[in-house]
Each structure stands twice: as structure tokens, then as C-alpha cells.
Write a structure and sequence with these properties.
With 386 residues, this protein is α+β, with helices and mostly antiparallel strands. It has a domain of 200 residues: Cupredoxins -  blue copper proteins (Immunoglobulin-like, Sandwich). A five-stranded mixed beta sheet has the order 3-2-1-5-8. A five-stranded mixed beta sheet has the order 4-10-9-6-7. A hairpin with a 2-residue loop joins strand 1 and strand 2.
Amino acid sequence: MTGTGVTMRLIGWAIALAAAGLTPAAAQTPASAPNQTSSQASAPSVNVTPPAGTPQNPGQPDVAQTSAIVVGSVGHALPTPHIGQPDGREGLQTQVTPIGQEAASFHNYWLLPLCAIISIVVLVLLIIALIRFRRGANPVPSRNSHNTAIEVIWTLVPVLILVGIAIPSIRLLRDVYSPPPADLTVKVTGHQWYWSYELPDYGVSFDSYMLKEKNDPTRQASQRPRTNADGPPLLAVDNRLVLPAGKVVKFIVTADDVIHSFAMPSFWIKQDANPGQLHETWAYIERPGVYFGQCSELCGARHGFMPIVIEATTPARFAQWVAEKGGHMPGAAPPAPGSTTISPVSNPSPAATAAAQPPPAAAVYAASLASAPTNKNVANRATQAQ
């Protein structure tokens, strides 16, 4: 029995030493590295080869050169300055959805002036009380304990203020939680620490990771660095969610680990993502462009490194993006397994590059507004849905 016990102990020590020897190798891979298998299956091909003269990271394998990103093509449109991203201004971002415009109008033209008026009135009353009822002006204090007129005023005025705030607030809540019929549905899943998107009607699903800076020591050789064409630092991603402008989009938001928050300031969206629960929100994007958001919940150590980027474009370019992702439009037959999907041009000619460039922003905006229903039409659709 003693020999058996010694043998078992030796086997246990051997297993422990083997596990300890494997642990450092596993720990060298950053926890935030993208899933290369899913990324290669869903993301557009990217040229990750450094420019000439740039040394490779020591110990990292050379990455084969693949097709380059065409800046301005679908999924890689250039952001519009001061639209859809923080730019240092005071106040709210420019709203590009009917709900956002209604909420911003309520905030800017009703709540803020009302707060300013209340503050001024209270300040004036305090100054009057300090001057008129100071000890020097009233050596003998008053014995009055009630004033019916003043008591009626300070009871009715706050009630009227609350009623005035409640009416537009309830109308805004009604519009938020009574969306018109959705044209497409997007399932959003929060992970530690990245986002996954799925368009079930189009057969498209992919992960979205933050793009790191070129000099970031945690960036792997296979990960392309952020450029100014991708967006601001800490907000650019490798795979954008592309949606058609002028359509009602329903977001089904959830999480698979901890509580996250799907926030897009220019859409007036901030929806918690809870594990095991499905929450719903919606947006009607009026203006084509690139819009940036991020997780707004303290969800862990890398809470600030899971941005959200939504690119709104024309329906034709959205269909092109769906094809590039290996999906299909509703009603069309899905691509056969192993078939080749559309990919960006590796070395585009000048003519191909010009064709890939988007039309001027003003023309796209005018066309989208001409073909899109107005805010009143969206509200009418919501009323009909009820």
C-alpha cells in the first residue's frame, strides 16, 4: 500500500509540473485578441503587411499580404467631421433619428430654459430674503407663521411645472416604446470585451473588435492598426455594422457574460444588455454616415475598449455589404457552401477606385431624404402599428 501511495504522489507531481510548464505559453496570448477563425470568415480582407522599412515584431510570424481595404467603399466609409462622434462640444451630439431629434428638442428648448428660469427665480428670492429680512432691517422678528397666498403659490407652481414636464416626457416615452414596423432586425450581443452582430434575415453574423494604435505593444502582428479613415482613437473597429438609411431597424440586445450597455449617442440609444434577457430598441437613421458609440456600463477591466460603429448607407450599398459578408437578401437563395463571395479589389485601378468612392455627401444626403419618409410618416406608421 505504501508503494502505491508513493507512486500516486509521483504521478500527481508529474501532472502538476507539466501543467505549470504549459501555462506561460497560454498566457502569452492577450485575452482581447479576436477570434481569428470567425474574423477571417466574416471580415473583409485587410492588408496587414507593414510598409517598406518597417521591421516585423520579433518572435512574430510574417503575415501574408492580402487584398487591401478600399477607403470609402461600403464598410469603410469616411466619417463626417462633427457628425456621429464626440468633438469637444458642449451639449448633445447631432441627432440623426426622429426619436433623437424629439428628445434633443425637449432637452434644449424646454428642460434647459426651465431649469435656468427656476434657478434665476430662486436666486432672486434668496437675495430678497437676505436683504429685506436681515437682522439689521428687522430688529424685532415677525410672529407670522402662515401666509395663505404664498402657500398656495408654492404649492401650485411646482405642480404646474411637473405637469408641463410630464406631457412631453410621456409623449417621448410613447414614441420610444411604440416603434413602427421594423424593416430589418439586428441581434446585438455584448461579450468581455467586444460586440457580436447578427442579421438573421440576411444570414450575416460577425464579431467587432476595437482597432488598436500602430504603436500599441498589445497589438498582434495579424491585427491592422487604426488609421484616421477608421475613426477616432478608442472608437474605431475592425468590422462595422452596416445598415440601410431610411429604414426602421430593430435592435435585440443581450449579453453572454456580464451586464453591458449598447449606447449610440447620435441615435438617442442607451440599452442595457443583460445575460439571459432580450431587450429591444429601435432607430430610423435619416442621414447616411458613420456613427460611433461604446459600451456605457462598467462591465470589467476592458470596459472602455469595446466601441460600437454603425455605418448607414444606401440600400444598394447595403446589399453589396451583405454579399461581401457571405449573406443574401431576403427572398434570395443563400450562397452555396464553399462559394466565393465578393471581396474588395486587391490592387484597384484608378477607374475601379473612382467607382468605389461614394458620391458626394450632399448628394447622398439629398437622395436619402428624398426617398425616406419624414418624421411625421414615421409617427404615422407607429400609430398604425398600434
